[in-house]
Predict the structure.
Amino acid sequence: MRIEENYSLLEHNTFGIDARCHRFVEYDTPEELAQLVGQAPLLHIGGGSNLLFLSDYDGTILHSRIRTIEKLPTSNTQADEVLLRVGAGIVWDELVAHTIDNHWYGLENLSLIPGEVGASAVQNIGAYGAEAKDFIVNVECLNLQNGERRTFSCHECQYSYRHSIFKTDAQRGRWAVLYVTYRLSTHFTPRLDYGGIRAELQRRDIAIEHLTAEQLRQVIIDIRRTKLPDPKVQGNAGSFFMNPIIPRSQYEKLAKLYPNIMHYEVDADHVKIPAGWMIEQCGWKGRALGPAAVHDRQALVLVNRGGAKGSDIVTLCNAVRHDVNEKFGIDIHPEVNFIGKV
Ligand code: EPU
């Protein structure tokens, strides 16, 4: 266990906000974490890639160093199936690389998403037509208020787009993820239907029947790198906003006004609109407001141009939200978690 007092969180948030916390504790086992329960306030973080600190944190910040990967036995009837029980502190993309190296398939489209395994199961990370929930069997947690251990089945996690039971008002902050068990396959089934992947394969002269998981991972990595800023160069937290899900009738009205509006199907009554497109239509792409800016290649991403405080990012966030609402009548919501108060 590592304990620091009056600790800078600069290395623990990809936005590059220089906030401090009263205490910072990294634990190596569930038993060590159990010793810390009941203290308040407590905040559990992962890789800090989805956080915006608005002020210093006057409490204890917890971080997992449980970094085991265990292959579990499977039943003989499921010959292709691979079950992996993974510690919450493993860096997500290291897990993806490790699975592909071992010929365990499924996670390719989720390559290069920042963050750690524990947070990925809270956030239900997703990209290029795949979501973490598609592979999660269960999530083992520890209750930070009373030390109770509980395993949530994938169904009990109530996953939806960037959402889970762990983000609901009733459960938020209550559970620390210890391990996540994934179901992967020894059989590679590429998912290529999300915009851009097939075109990129064609450009590289890769025939789909010969495509390997390593190649697909590389294509995803390259597409992400062209659009998304590297947090080591410019602070950011990936998509700042969620793509709003709206009633189909509202979309149909908007499509009359804006014939080139894009959408993804959700269900018979709802569609999802790319917020990045709307933000771009409002003229915000590449525009700065003080030390915060809208990224010039992907308008869904807000960046720290250097020295921004949490409040600078919030000011920009509110201005963008206001304009999108005024033009399209849609209130977009941050995906990033705000910690503290301005
Ligand atoms: N678009 C624009 N202008 C922009 C950005 C996007 O017109 O500035 C348009 C694109 O042309 C495209 C559509 O909007 O037709 C969607 O864009 P993109 O494929 O880049 O994906 P996204 O909807 O903006 C989501 C996820 C990303 C994920 C990508 C790829 C959310 C909040 N974001 O972004 O996830 O990588 O799809 O699957 O759902 C993240 O969560 O941090 C993240 C990066």
